[in-house]
Amino acid sequence: MTAMIPTTALSVNVNKVALLRNTRHLDIPSVTRAAMLCLQAGAQGITVHPRPDERHIRGRDVFELAELLKAWPDREYNIEGNPFHNLMDFIRELAGRGMRPHQATFVPDSEGQFTSDHGWRLSDHDAKDAERLRLLIAECHALGVRVSLFMDAEPQAMVAAKALGADRVELYTEPYAAAHGGAGQAAQLQRFADAARAAQATGLEVNAGHDLNRDNLTDFLRAVPGVKEVSIGHALIADALELGYAATVRDYLRCIAQAR
């Protein structure tokens, strides 16, 4: 009997729904309804990245989505952001209200950054942040929250991530997405596969995200072993404008299933 290969969870990042809503004062499209429709279609989780300027996800969204997910106990809530900005305030308050997220993804972005564009460089200029990260990871664990560190695909960095107490790393996949379909694709896939194996060798689990889409997702998951979760926002919401949330989520789940 052939053992079943565990599938990769799909977590839908709903930031871009909030970005569109914020262009008017009508409260549409609804972030919580978007999340509900994605969950109904089979998404295994919802991700938000509330930045300090609230240019997309707002504070009330964080708590309304946590309330929504109480009705979906088999799904996960992932809240990401820079733990030195506003992320920890949300995690602490959610935990205090009995709605702690399942996962906190620590991302080293600046307050005004357009989008996340690199992982923690623990052996480079971010080394000074290591002790602060260690303490905040320990605090999350005390609150019952799993921690994933947003990391570049650098195998040698995984030991440092594990040493801080992280449970997972989320591999920053934009370099792979940019190379997909071109001469550099194979090299990027090898790089990410090596990083995933290095992480797993230390005891870390592996997530992935950034610019993954229906064209490149299956190839990535076939090449990179043991990816526990992909967090997809921009491409998925763009597809949903044409296909609708339910059809889009089902097609991303198809892409994941094809990699098995």
TrEMBL record:
The active site annotation covers H49 (proton acceptor), E80 (proton acceptor), H210 (proton donor)
List the residue(s) that the UniProt entry marks as the site Transition state stabilizer.
E170
Does this entry carry the keyword Transferase? yes
Q: Which InterPro entries match?
A: Aldolase_TIM, PyrdxlP_synth_PdxJ, Pyridoxine-5'_phos_synth
Supply one GO CC term from the record: cytosol
Q: Which reaction does it catalyse?
A: 3-amino-2-oxopropyl phosphate + 1-deoxy-D-xylulose 5-phosphate = pyridoxine 5'-phosphate + phosphate + 2 H2O + H(+)
Sorted alphabetically, which Gene3D superfamilies does this protein's record hold? Aldolase class I
Self-association or partners: how does it assemble?
Answer: Homooctamer; tetramer of dimers.
Give the UniProt family note: Belongs to the PNP synthase family.
Function, in words: Catalyzes the complicated ring closure reaction between the two acyclic compounds 1-deoxy-D-xylulose-5-phosphate (DXP) and 3-amino-2-oxopropyl phosphate (1-amino-acetone-3-phosphate or AAP) to form pyridoxine 5'-phosphate (PNP) and inorganic phosphate.
Tell me the protein's name.
Pyridoxine 5'-phosphate synthase
Organism of provenance: Hylemonella gracilis str. Niagara R
